Amino acid sequence: MPNDRELDATNNTEAVLTDHYPGMAAIDETILNLETDAISPDGEVLKRPFGPLFWVAIGWVSLIILLAILANLLPLQNPNYGNYNILNAGPSLQHWLGTDDLGRDLFSRIVFGSRVSLVVGFGATFISIVAGGTLGLLSGYKGGALDSTMNAASFIILAFPAIIAVIALVAVWAPPNLWKITLILGVGTIPLMYRVIRATTLAFANRDFVVAAKTMGATTPRILFREILPNVVPIGVTFGLISVAGLIVLEGSLAFLGLSVPLPTPSWGNMIAEGSNNGLLSINPLIMMWPALSMFLLLLSINLIGDRLRQRLDVREGLL
Amino acid sequence: MTIAADQPSEVDDVVLRVDQLVVEFVNGKKRVQAVSGVSFEVRAGETLGLVGESGCGKSTTGRALIQVQPATSGSIEYRGVALNKLSAKELRRVRTKVQMIFQDPISSLNPRRRVKDIVAEPLVIWNQGSKEEQAERVRTMMEKVGIDPDVAGDRRPREFSGGQCQRISIARALMADPELLICDEPVSALDVSVQAQILNLLADLKAQFGLTMVFIAHDLAVVKNVSDRIAVMYLGKLVEISPADDLYDYAAHPYTEALLTAIPEPDPEAGGHHVPLQGELPSPLNPPSGCRFRTRCPYAQDVCAEVEPPLQEVGPGHQVACHFPRPKASAAH
Fold first, then answer.
1. Which pLDDT tens digit goes with each residue over A233-290?
2. Which residues form the domain of A301?
3. Domain match, A300 and A162 both
4. Distance (Å) from the alpha carbon of A37 to chain B's nearest alpha carbon
5. Which of A27, A176, A287, B91 is most buried, taking the most CB atoms under 10 A from its CB?
């Protein structure tokens, strides 16, 4: 009589690779001698490879982060120094990506400008994950009045059109700088993060393993952090990366409107804004193209990494 | 009851006493009584089988016993301590003595934790012994439930079959050193041949650890083999409670009779009568008046719609809630 594992094998070859157990070695209680060789060779779960594209994306994101961190140590030109002898120059050995209409080195401006995007993207996401994640865990697990109140509050906040609310805030809390923008966008993303984490928590809060932990005397913090959090983290990471990408775009939009970090400090957003002003686009399209391309490739990479990580972290719960 | 007064030793023996347990679910203005006034006792060392069809409230009763589902009224006493009246702090300590095995072996184990950590959890929570002692106890327990600790310890639940997951759940429950084990349909998600393994394992461990068990199931054939006494539930009420052997010889309640005759008979020559149940389980939102079984009962009369039958003695330790209990002769094999 075929056991359930073997039946699985007919339509799920991965099942055989990962855990081919002699499920019914004997009708007796003793299955003490599980055959070790029936398990995957290295004793680990065989995982789907990430693929080369994932590593290219990781490489690109790492490169941009490294450049942003080390920008001051690298032999880069001053991003705000204008050499009026070479306005709107094309790429050369001196100026890898060319110069803009004030003769500033575009490569240097791209590198220094990336700091704004990265700090806002990752910083604001960090704020929203810490605050929204904690609230979401508590609210999803505890339920009751706390949950309904926070849930309603999140809906109300989410009902505001994000960009308009942020523009209003930035306008009131002038002048904008990097930390204000990060804080505003971070706090503004809390309701969204809260909803995602709460929904994921709800899916686990009433599982039998949580009930079992309760009956064993586990305290609420222990249940939250030991039983539920590990199951929520994959979603948090994936959604966090999507949020980084979204916030970078949002910062770009604000900068384009002149509501982010003020000039002359470079950011990808204000470079795009500069490059598209006063008919400059037709004279020197590179000014706008480089930051747009950088942003496009960064977002593409981040989304790709998020997607692959989600696939990897997605635990299938047994193959019963 | 009079037993308590006559034989005080019996009282000491009672591990769990459930008295007039009511569990209601409130959904807006609707109230559903999943359990409406169930009383029973579980004595030390025995296995009480709790049977009934889906939706009869047997699992809700089980969850109320471990205080996962709050009781609306009534009391649940473990060794004389009313569990549903304890503070959260007191409950935390006491309820480790009552552990549960769940129906879904996959959902009962955290998919992100290693098996040895799952099994060690009760020890870690209560900070019992050094790391080495804990590891040693986990090894011993895993061997007892038939899981090789060397092979399985570092793996995660998804790498195991349903039967193996159920063994791991059992190991974890026993690590808490319980006196009372509530098994909520522990084998109904498993293959029939694996069911036998798990049932045998439970029987062995029960003897080894001196456990008392409440065994919830919808399958009388499964319950028959493990139970000392059997309680039959219908639509939130207890309809019959009896020593297991008596019940299979003589089902006094028409519902029990129907359940028993519905067990498939492997011998085609055996014949025997089958009492088919008519209709569906009525909605617990609006239960029938009087006897709740009357809408499907072949023997129902006018009185059944008016008066709710109380549990009454029809034999030693055998109680039935029916106005017209089946006569003994009719059910004789």
1. 888 888 898 898 888 888 888 888 888 887 778 888 888 888 787 777 777 788 888 8
2. 63-313
3. yes
4. 11
5. A287
Residue A3 per-residue DSSP state: -
| Co-location of A25 and A123 in the same domain | no
Enumerate the β-bridge partners of residue A105. Answer: A99
Of A23, A29, A316, the CB nearest to B161: A23
Best of B110, B117, B123, B198 to disrupt the A interface by mutation (most A CBs within 10 Å)?
Answer: B110
Q: Is residue A55 part of a domain?
A: no
Q: Give yes or no: residues A91 and A25 share one domain.
A: no
**In-domain check, residue A104:** yes
> A218 and A260 share a domain?
yes
- For residue A46, being part of any structural domain is answered with no
Does residue B105 belong to the interface with chain A, where contact is any CB pair within 8 Å? yes
Do A233 and A280 share a structural domain? yes
Give the C-alpha separation, A89 to A38, whole Å: 65
Binding-site residues on chain A for chain B (CB distance < 8 A): 1, 3-5, 18-19, 21, 23-24, 27-34, 36, 39, 43, 45, 207-209, 211-219, 222, 226-227, 230-231, 315-320
Nearest CA in chain B to A8: B161
| Same structural domain, A128 and A91 | yes
Query: How many domains does the structure of chain A reveal?
Result: 2
Q: The complex's ipTM?
A: 0.84
3-state SS record for A4-28: HHHHHHHHCHHHHHHHCCCCCCCCC
Q: Do B147 and A31 touch (CB under 8 A)?
A: yes
In a domain, A249, yes or no: yes
Please report where in the chains the tokens 């709800």 appear, as a residue: A202
A-chain CB neighbours of B96 within 8 Å are: 215-217
- Residues A58-96 pLDDT 10s: 999 999 999 888 888 877 777 777 777 777 777 777 777
Rounded Cα–Cα distance for residues A198 and A205 (Å): 10
Q: Which of A5, A29, A208 comes nearest B107 by C-beta? A: A208
Q: What is the pTM of this model?
A: 0.78
Of B125, B130, B124, B65, the closest CA to residue B99 belongs to B65
Interchain CB distance below 8 Å, A217 and B158: no
Q: What is the CATH number of the domain that holds A103?
A: 1.10.3720.10
Of B27, B32, B21, B30, nearest to B281 (Cα)? B32
Q: Is the dihedral of CA B116, B117, B120, B121 positive or negative?
A: negative
Instruction: Note which residues in 236-255 of chain B have CB less than 8 A from chain A.
Output: none
Is B263 touching A (CB cutoff 8 A)? no
